[in-house]
Design brief:
Blueprint: H1 12-32, H2 36-44, H3 49-76, H4 85-90, H5 92-103, H6 105-108, H7 115-146, H8 151-169, H9 172-184, H10 192-211, H11 213-217, H12 231-240, H13 242-253, H14 259-272, H15 277-292, H16 296-302, H17 305-326, H18 334-374, H19 379-404, E1 411-415, E2 418-422, H20 427-436, H21 438-443, H22 457-478
Antiparallel strand pairs: 1-2
Helix pairs in contact: 1-8, 1-10, 3-7, 3-12, 3-19, 5-7, 5-10, 7-18, 7-19, 8-18, 9-10, 13-19, 14-19, 14-20, 15-18, 17-18, 18-19, 18-22
Length: about 475
Amino acid sequence: MSEIKEKRYVSPKETLAYGFANSGQCFGYNLVAGGYLSIFFTKVFGIPSEAVATMILFLGIWDTVNDPLMGAVVDKTRTRYGKLRPYLLFVPLPLAVTTILLFSGPLILADAKSVVTKIIYMYISYFIWEFFYTIGDIPFWGMSAAISPLPSDRTRCISSARFLSGIFGGISIPILTLLMDASEKQILHISLAQVFCIMSVIAATFGMGLFSLAGLKCKERVVQTVKEPSVIEGFKVMFRNKPLLLIICGNVIGALSGLAGVFQTYYLAEVININSLMIIVSLPGTILGWATYLVIPKLKKHFDNRQIVFLNGITRIIVATLVFIIGFRHFSEVKVILPLLMIRNLIFSFFDTINSVIPTEMIGDTVDYMEWKTGERNEGVSFSVLTFVGKLTGSLSTSVATAVLPLIGLAYHEVDGKNIAVKGESTDLWIWAFYSFIPYLIGALGLIPYFWYDLTGKKLKTIRSDLKERHDEMSRKVSGGDYVGED
């Protein structure tokens, strides 16, 4: 069998375009991720936590069907631009509009007295936003496997996407928290509702402008079969893909690890009372995270993707346990918590960076595996797993966390036009536990399915080599050229 020739098909310019596109997408998504959607609906919009939890859980369950279905539609698409690019060219504009509508609810309904009206607006605006986000997210990550047949090209594109999104996409949260503090401490005479609206406008213009680069500057190079699979066939593919099913199971089981991100928001807002403290806490880890991208190629020479997943999970539970114990009696003291969380985030950031690349690579490997096994490529359905698992993690953790709030004694009551937090005797301790330890203990269970994951070593090399020969032969029959398009 011939070895795959290490020729670079994706130029540095295109690699950067793919990375900047993801940073634009993430700028807006970060406003929804973690606990910011929860705190927006409960504290800013004034919607009861039970209603918010129910809505987010309902739409999270819908994603388990909607995302693979959208992936099947993508796999069926055949155009002269490819099967992924048409969606990336179309979606930035409607996603920009729906982002503004989602976070403008408190201003649009400023005079509304009925909670039911607010709940209806919440359902409609979030559902429409999530619909357009899905249309863009699945093709975007599918592009990471279709942009080149070479693992090195894919790794560079995925690393570029994660690295640049961490810088430019990640600045939305520091800006948001600074504006929240400025609003609540009356440094700026704007309300929290205006803060979120301003951020949504920036996300719609700056963010979606960058996201449009994915459709305008990136190309699909891996040859697709002429045959169009039916939507049902495409939907069924993930049930025949054992490695993909194991990844799904691992991520679904570990979905509640996302509780930490949600409770971080409430911890900073209601226990420490400094939203922007997150900037200082995250700074050392952010710097290390950028440097970690340079380490990934060297790390992969010593560990396969499966081993890296285990190393990540085990390290997290050890560090989380120590942080919880050390901070047990001092969780409300900034002078103790600040250095403790900085050290924790420094360690976590190393694995967060690696974990932002490895699972995407693994799903790309499952796409190759199914082509090797069946002759069909299914980037749409396979990468819908990445998107729906990410959204399921966010939806489930946000829903559960919001539902837990009244159980641990946290509620919001309107006083002089502002929603003020009311807490019980042990509320702060529970928030600390759900922020520092409990989610990582639950998340460790997600490692179990990876004991049976086997797309590593010789098997993976054989798959890639065999596919190289098939692609060369297919290209000679179709066009007489290489199996990838020339720029």
